[in-house]
Structure formats: structure tokens, C-alpha cells
Write a structure and sequence with these properties.
The protein is mainly beta and about 90 residues long. It has a single domain (about 1-90), classed as Metal Binding Protein, Guanine Nucleotide Exchange Factor, Chain A, CATH 2.170.150. Helices cover about 0% and strands about 55% of the residues. It contains no helices and nine strands. The strands form two sheets. Strands 3-4-8-7-6-5 form a six-stranded antiparallel sheet, with no helix packed on it.
């Protein structure tokens, strides 16, 4: 599967975990040249605290368009080391 934004592949992997309709890619599959740090954080009752990345493609920023759980709760251990996307990022097979 591929995560695509602005006709650019942001991540690509056959090793995907799907939870609540979100596709979590291995962090190692990220194309780091398009990823930038974000200070944004949110909390999920059963997964824990999510941290975010922003995307930068062709000079355009997509703020907080990817998230990950650095230290998920035990119930969500299968998404540790994985990143999911939203905000216009298309997931295609």
C-alpha cells in the first residue's frame, strides 16, 4: 500500500495494520524527506498519547497530517513503531 499526498508517495509498505479504518505503516517505510516534526499531541482513551508529523511536498505544508503512538497502551501495542495519515493523504493498494 501507498500513502500519497500531492501525487507524491509519502510511505509504501505491504506490512500494514488497520485499526478503526486507519492504515498504520511501519515508521521505516516513511520517505523522510517529506516528513517534518510537529509539537501537536492528542490523547486516545484506549491507545494513549498520539504525536504528529507534518508533511512538506513541493513547498506546501500539510500540518499534523500523520500521527503515531510512541508508547501506546497495551491494547494498542500492535501499532507501536507505525504511522497513520489523514488530512487529504490517500491510501491506495
Amino acid at each position: 500500500m501507498q500513502a500519497i499526498w500531492k501525487d507524491t508517495v509519502i510511505a509504501e509498505s505491504d506490512d500494514i495494520v488497520t485499526i478503526e479504518g486507519n492504515h498504520y505503516f511501519p515508521e521505516s517505510s516513511l520517505k523522510r524527506e517529506f516528513i517534518s516534526f510537529s509539537n501537536h499531541k492528542t490523547s486516545c482513551a484506549w491507545k494513549g498519547q498520539a504525536s504528529y508529523y507534518s508533511l512538506m511536498v513541493a513547498g506546501e505544508m500539510n500540518t499534523d497530517a500523520a500521527w503515531y503512538y510512541a508508547d501506546p497502551k497495551p491494547e494498542a501495542a500492535n501499532i507501536q513503531g507505525r504511522v497513520a495519515f489523514w488530512k487529504g493523504v490517500k491510501i491506495v493498494p
